[in-house]
Design a protein that fits this description.
The chain has 7 helices and 15 strands. With 331 residues, it is α/β, with parallel strands linked by helices. Strand 3 and strand 4 form a beta hairpin.
Length: 331
């Protein structure tokens, strides 16, 4: 496995934690790339490659800021901790999740450097991933009336899922969503399929309870059983990542706001992220107010010819440095 010990620098009074992940999603078909996916090529003012935006660019920006600040504030009695973890792209259980589950993370505040266009993200959606197993009865394809078509029943289920109404709403994240992402069923075209599996991704907003989300999904099955006597299905849950949120006046948010105001002359707007991040572990398990804040646009993440603008990396380094100086000089 990959061991990711925290690197520590400084004194021990208060701790500023910066968290980033080193893992990336697969490159896909390299022939589709105009720039080498692992070449870190710089051209047209952009750094190209897998992970440039998500999120090795942010890691480089923070390390550059830290190098400068350590020289400027060598006698601070405060501390900076850097976590460069693995496994975030697989929901982080073996990276930040591992560290927080074992009580190895302590800090007064944290920044998670996911790409936010350098806008402070104070909230992020969670996710509940799972699958429906729809059961039928096999028969010859020439006599479908003798069987129960699991794919047809799965179609009824997908239709019901597509009409679900979500009443929860978050001011930065909007309403929850549900996506049917994969469907597997059948063996041959001349056989009535006896089974079909539907995999889903239900995004959760802060304030929603996972137990209530599960009950709503299970109620869909109950409704279909009443409407279609031959409908049979079960549900299984594969992964749960909780949503996260911190107050907009938290110290770490104020540090980012002040640094951005100093650089650009105005207070930035705060945003929410539709994706999940490791901030949820730091907030829920370790009680650390954690801001999601980094260079690059989330729309570039996981794409062919992923990039981050060099000027955004430079600006991120400046913002991170200002945040660190303000923190390290604090009482």
């Amino acid at each position: 496995g990959f061991d990711s010990p925290p690197a520590k620098r400084g004194a021990r009074s208060r701790t500023f934690l910066w968290n980033g992940h080193l893992d990336v999603v697969p490159r896909g078909d390299e022939r589709a790339w105009r720039h080498s996916p692992f070449g870190a090529e710089v051209s047209r003012g952009k750094l190209w490659g897998r992970g440039a935006a998500d999120m090795k660019g942010a890691i480089a920006a923070f390390l550059a800021a830290l190098e400068v600040v350590v020289d400027l504030a060598p006698r601070s009695r405060h501390r900076v901790t850097v976590h460069l973890v693995s496994d975030e792209e697989s929901l982080g259980a073996e990276g930040t999740g591992y560290l927080t589950a074992r009580g190895l993370v302590r800090a007064d505040l944290a920044v998670v450097g996911e790409p936010t266009d350098l806008l402070p993200a104070v909230a992020a959606k969670g996710t509940l991933r799972g699958r429906f197993h729809v059961l039928g009865r096999a028969a010859h394809g020439a006599a479908p009336h003798r069987g129960v078509n699991a794919i047809v029943n799965a179609a009824h289920l997908v239709e019901q899922l597509s009409t679900l109404k979500f009443h929860a709403e978050h001011p930065l994240l909007g309403r929850p969503t549900l996506n049917v992402g994969l469907i597997h069923g059948g063996v041959r075209t001349n056989m009535v399929p006896a089974a079909c599996t539907i995999e889903f991704d239900r995004r959760i907003v802060p304030g929603e309870k996972p137990a209530a989300v599960k009950r709503a999904l299970e109620a869909v099955l109950a409704d279909l059983r009443r409407a279609h006597p031959k409908f049979r299905a079960t549900i299984a849950y594969d992964a749960l990542a909780l949503p996260s949120e911190i107050p907009e006046d938290a110290e770490v948010v104020r540090l980012a706001d002040d640094a951005l105001r100093q650089l650009q002359g105005r207070r930035p707007r705060h945003i929410g992220l539709i994706g999940t991040t490791d901030a949820r572990y730091l907030i829920a398990r370790s009680g650390i107010p954690s801001l999601i804040f980094g260079p690059g646009n989330i729309a570039q993440a996981h794409t062919v010819d992923e990039f981050v603008r060099v000027e955004d990396l430079e600006r991120a380094a400046a913002v991170y440095a200002l945040m660190l100086v303000r923190f390290l000089e604090g009482s």
